[in-house]
Design goal:
Layout: E1 4-6, E2 9-12, E3 17-24, H1 25-28, E4 32-38, E5 44-51, E6 57-59, E7 67-72, E8 78-85, E9 94-101, E10 117-118, E11 122-127
Parallel strand pairs: 2-11
Antiparallel strand pairs: 1-3, 3-8, 4-5, 4-9, 5-6, 7-8, 9-10, 9-11
């Protein structure tokens, strides 16, 4: 299953962007959908996650209060997870990946290796 991301781009510090991730609803009806990112020269890091069946949300400390994760599963066949990013900082510059874990969000939800499906990534660049 390929997840489809969109919405990346370039923005100045303080600006906002919204990322989208589409996945087949029958696959992710009860899943932990997450956004992770990889900045240049750094390892992968968790950003935000949502449990699709319960709506529970989780955030990395670095983005709390600035980023919001939400989902739209009203459509019959597609679940779309959004990452609304506000007050962007240059250190938010990274490739952002959508990922899905088939089950409730586990304690190690920021560990990339647990995820079953991934998107190809979308670049976010924040200039100062």
């Amino acid at each position: 299953v390929q997840l489809g991301e969109s919405g990346g781009g370039s923005v100045q510090a303080g600006g906002a962007l919204r990322l989208s991730c589409r996945a087949p609803l029958h696959t992710v009806s009860s899943a932990c959908m997450a956004w992770l990112r990889r900045a240049p020269g750094e390892g992968r890091a968790g950003v935000a996650a949502i449990y699709t069946a319960g709506g529970n949300t989780f955030y990395a400390d670095s983005v709390k209060g600035r980023f919001t994760i939400a989902q739209d599963n009203a459509k019959n066949t597609v679940n779309t997870v959004y990452l609304q990013m506000r007050s962007l900082k240059p250190e938010d510059t990274a490739m952002y990946y959508c990922a899905a874990y088939l089950g409730r969000c586990p304690r190690q939800l920021w560990l990339g290796s647990i995820y079953n499906y991934w998107g190809k990534g979308t670049q976010v660049t924040v200039s100062s």
